[in-house]
Amino acid sequence: MKTFLFQGDSITDANRDDENEDNFGLGCGYALLFASDFSRKHKGEFKFINRGKNGDRITDIYARIKEDIINLKPDYMSILIGVNDVSHELTQGCGVLPDKFKKIYCMLIEEVKEALPEIKIIILEPFVLKGLHTTERWDEFSGEVEKQAEVSKRVAEKYGLKFVALQTIFDEVSADGNTRYWSVDGIHPTAAGHQIIKEELSKAVEVLL
Length: 209
Known about the structure:
The chain is an alpha/beta fold and 209 residues long. It has one domain (2-208): SGNH hydrolase (Rossmann fold, 3-Layer(aba) Sandwich). Helix content is 50%, strand content 12%. The longest helix has 21 residues, at 138-158. The two termini are 13 Å apart. The model has no long low-confidence stretch (mean pLDDT 96).
């Protein structure tokens, strides 16, 4: 049986229960939707683990690289990270700026690939919409998340990894101005928003099988 690992921040975490991982460890977001659909299509072929963590920045994922990635020995891993690196900087002054974001992201990928040379990694693009948490400083939020998205894409290209674009899709579906349908606050997706992430991730993974 192969292992699929979800890594990321609160979007990936989605209220998962890390004390009851066997039954409720996937949370209620795109990780659960993906695992549900994939399990039906590939019965008995995959085990799914979610180690997304609320509030995580790239530095936090790197700090737990042994415990929450390498020691789990995943065959596949998706990573969705970047928005907290921006929001923490804008609101608390403790984010991760693009240059350091790239440096740590590269270190993470290199060390994971060294330890697990056969792993297939999918990088998901960080995204942001107008909402409760973002509208007041929209120009800064959107501009800085765009920089992190570009870094994420370049990291994927550098290491030959699959990159999943999300910002353009969210922009398209919310072109009517109803961003609340897709995100509760501009950062965290609604059920419909999680479905978009699940669909795009599924397309990327099917190519890698």
